[in-house]
Amino acid sequence: MTMGTRVYLARLAGLPVFDPNGDRVGRVRDAVVRLRTTNRPPQVVGLVAEMALRRRIFLPIGRVTSMDAEGVVLASGSLNLRRFEKRPNELLLVEDLLDRRVTVVPDDGDGPGTTGAVVDIGVELNRNNEYLVTKVAVREHTGRLARRGHVFQAEFDRVRGLIGPTDTQGTSNLLALLEQMKPADMANALQDLPDARRNEVAAALSDRTLADVLEELPEHDQVEILVRLDRERAADVLERMDPDDAADLLGELPKAEQAVLLDLMEPEEAAPVRQLMNYRPGTAGSVMTSEPVILTPDTTVAEALARIREPELSPVVAAQVFVARAPSATPSGKYLGMVHFQRLLREPPSSILGGIIDTDLEPLRPETSLAEIIKQMATYDLVAMPVVDSSRRLVGAVTVDDVLDHSLPRDWRDRDLREPEADEVRL
User: DSSP secondary structure string, 44-95?
Assistant: First the structure.
């Protein structure tokens, strides 16, 4: 096994997993540590890897031929795709040990010891080819909000509180790992945590990050996390969600709670959400985004390209601009047409949008059914369609991700319900 004598497990989280041919087959999400009945240190028995469709499986440590800063490489053979389930005598580094409050006793055992939070776990390969926990990296607790304690390493047998029940597990190091992930992957990681831990970690995320993660979670998890926040914080998070996603989430709450949260939101943020909640489910109005890119006909191509390059825009929203008379917020002035970003790339920067708009596509109405939207998008190979009201004002746009989200079963994000039966793949 081409690995160093000591490996730090937290550094493996997020690294790619490769088959023997060098093709990526997944990504490391955690490490599995097995407790032993004697006083011997716990043993690393495998890794948890995230494969296609966000399925998490167990990789026995014996199947790993190398692991370093570039990733983990597996040996050839059959790979069991059964979803990983933790056994009673096992712990997960990220889920169970990271951020756990521990006490490191002095070498001579004399004195109160040093308290801190677990930052990483060091394991070493012994003569029996077993990876055993030998080192614990701990960040010292200083008791001062403005000062972070230094990180030091301690022998496993000097650490108290690492194994067993705890109600003193923090979130800082776990958050550092999660924030390296995309929102969809972060949402998947949260689903693996116990409810109390998941709610604690979610509450520690920034409003922007939590909003992005909520949009990727099953509805029952969205509701569970939102109702655990205080109402002012919940309103702040809703403000940072896309209005259509915020409307969907609020629709899962009791009417009285909807009213309270909408009243706590800033009026300009609550207005589009209120409007979306008025549309009948299964129609263009109920699935559209009320914040597409809207520009006036005198806008230049250069200005339009600068607008769609803004990082906060999702790729599907930035794929086209909609052209309308002022005002440029929904409901806009009279809708004139749309321009795909590829057309923008082919035109001189000084050209104005009014001269290059596509007027052939008939816009949707808010009451257009989802089935009709799907048919039109498939017929014309579209990623977005405009939605106008009876006065031909642009009120929103239906994007392909909106259509997919509302066409799939309501519980499609719930990993437990959508994972296929166990199978094997040959590497």
Answer: EEEEEEE-GGG-EEEEEGGGEEEEETTEEEEPSSEEE-SBP---TTEEEIII
Token readout for 320 is 């086209």
Q: Please answer whether residues 364 and 258 qualify as being in contact, where contact means their C-beta atoms are separated by less than 8 angstroms.
A: no
What interhelical angle do 267-277 and 243-250 show, nearest 10?
60
Task: Tell me if residue 177 falls in helix, strand or coil.
Answer: helix
Burial per residue of 349-358, b for 16 or more beta-carbon CB atoms within 10 angstroms, e otherwise: eebbbeebbe
What are the tens digits of pLDDT across the range 181-209?
888 888 888 887 888 888 888 888 899 99
Residues with Cβ within 8 Å of 206's Cβ and at least 6 positions away in sequence, in order, are none
Contacts with 203 (C-beta within 8 Å, 6 or more apart), sequence order = 210, 225, 228, 229, 233
- Report angle CA 213, 214, 216 to the nearest 5 degrees: 70
Contact 240, 215 (CB under 8 A): no
Domains and CATH numbers, the chain: 1-163 (no CATH), 181-278 (1.25.60.10), 294-407 (3.10.580.10)
Q: Which two tokens stand for residue 350?
A: 């000084």
Task: State if pTM tops 0.85.
Answer: no
| CA–CA distance, 123 with 130 (Å, rounded to integer) | 9
Which residue type does 140 have? E
Element (H, E) at 138: strand 131-140
